Amino acid sequence: MKILVSGGCGYIGSHTVVDLLKENYEVVIVDNLINSKREVLDNIKKITNKEVTFYKVDLCDKEKLKEVFEKESIDAVIHFAGLKAVGESVEKPLMYYENNLISTINLLDLMREFNVKKIVFSSSATVYGNPDSLPIYEDFPLSTTNPYGTTKLMIENILKDLYKSDNSFDITILRYFNPIGAHKSGLLGEDPNGIPNNLMPYIVRVATGKFPILNIFGDDYKTVDGTGVRDYIHVCDLSYGHVLALKNKKTGLKIYNLGTGKGTSVLELVKKFESVNGVKVNYQIAPRRDGDIDACYASNEKAVKELGFKPKYTIEDMCRDSYNFVKMNTN
Length: 331
Ligand code: NAD
Ligand code: WQD
Hints:
Layout: E1 2-6, H1 11-22, E2 26-31, H2 39-48, E3 53-56, H3 62-71, E4 76-79, H4 86-91, H5 93-113, E5 118-124, H6 147-165, E6 170-176, E7 178-180, H7 199-207, E8 214-217, E9 229-230, E10 232-234, H8 235-247, E11 253-258, E12 264-265, H9 266-277, E13 283-286, E14 295-296, H10 301-307, H11 315-329
Parallel strand pairs: 1-2, 1-4, 2-3, 4-5, 5-6, 6-11, 7-10, 8-13, 9-14
Antiparallel strand pairs: 9-12
Helix pairs in contact: 1-2, 1-8, 3-5, 5-6, 7-11, 9-11
Residues 84, 86, 124, 126, 178, 197-199, 202, 214-217, 228, 230, 266, 289, 292 line the site of UDP-4-deoxy-4-formamido-beta-L-arabinopyranose.
C-alpha cells in the first residue's frame, strides 16, 4: 500500500514515516520544508534502512501536487502538512488560513479526482477550547481561541461536509494532545527555529544552557500545584496511532483523541526532567500566558477500544528522549 504523507519531514510526520516503513508500507513524502530539513530523509533511511520517495512541493501549488498524484499510485493519505505556531497565527492569521486551508482543499480535491478515498488528518486538542469538564471526550463542544486552532476546526468541518457529499470517503480525524519526546536513536525529534512556544523544547534549551531560565506561566491555576496541567504523549506512541488508524476496519468518518489520559503539571514535568536526566532546569514563576487553560487531558477510551491504541511510554521516557535528541544534535 502506498501512502502519501504530507508534512512527512516534520516532527510527527517523520516518526510516522518510520513506523509506516517498518510495517512495509510504501511512502511518498510531500513537504515544502518550511519547518523541517532535508536531512530528516537521511535519518529516516539510517533508522529503517528503507527508501522513501520525496517531493519538495508546496501543497498550495495545486499543479505541482497534481504531478505527484499523476506519477504515484496513491492508496491513502496522512495529512500532517500545516503551520502550527499558535502565537504566530495570531500575528499572521491570513498566512495561517491560506497555508492550512488552501493546502488541504487542494489535497482533498486531487484525492477526489484520482479516486483516493482514505485520509488521516492531524487535528488537535485545541479544538476543544476551554472544556467544561475533564477528561475530554470526542463529543465535547468545539470552539477555538486562535487562528491556528480555527484552521483545524475549519478543516474538520470541511472533512465532515466532504463525507456528507460522498460517503465513499474514509476519513479519520486524530486530535492530538501534547506530543513530546523523540526517536530513541536521537536521529529524529523536534527542533523548532527561534524561541520555542511549547514547554518541552524550552525546558531542553534551559537544560543545555541555550536559554538562562524557564518562565512558568502562572502558578495560580486550579491544579495540583497551581501550574498548568496537560496530557503529554510520546511522539512514538502518537505516530503509531496513525498506523492503527490506517489499519482500522471501521470505515466512514471517525474522530479519535490521541492522548495518554493522564495529566502532568508544568512543575511535575520540570522535576521529572531534572531527575531523569540529572540536570538542573532554572525556572521562575511568570504571569499567565494569554489563552492558556488550567488543565487539559484526554479520554482515550475510544481510541483504545476501536483502534487498539495503547500508549506505552512514560513521562520519564519522554523527558529522557527529548533531552537525548537535543544533546545529540547540538553543534
Ligand atoms: P511540523 O511543523 O514539524 O511538521 C509540519 C510539516 O509540514 C513541516 O515539515 C513543514 O515543512 C510542512 N508544511 C507546512 N506547510 C506546508 C505546505 N503548504 N506544503 C508542504 N509542506 C508543508 O509540525 P508537527 O509538530 O509535526 O505537526 C504535524 C501536524 O500535527 C500539524 O498539522 C500540526 O498542526 C498538528 N498538531 C501538532 C501538534 C504538536 O504539538 N506538535 C499538536 C496537535 C496537532
Ligand atoms: C504547556 C504548558 C503552558 C511554555 C499547544 C497548542 C496546541 C497544541 C500543543 C498544536 C502550559 C506552560 C509553556 C513555557 C510554560 N499544538 N508553559 N512555559 O499550550 O497546551 O498547547 O501545543 O496543535 O494547539 O496550543 O502546550 O507546550 O505551549 O504549554 O509554563 O515557556 O506549559 O502555560 O500550561 P499547550 P505548550
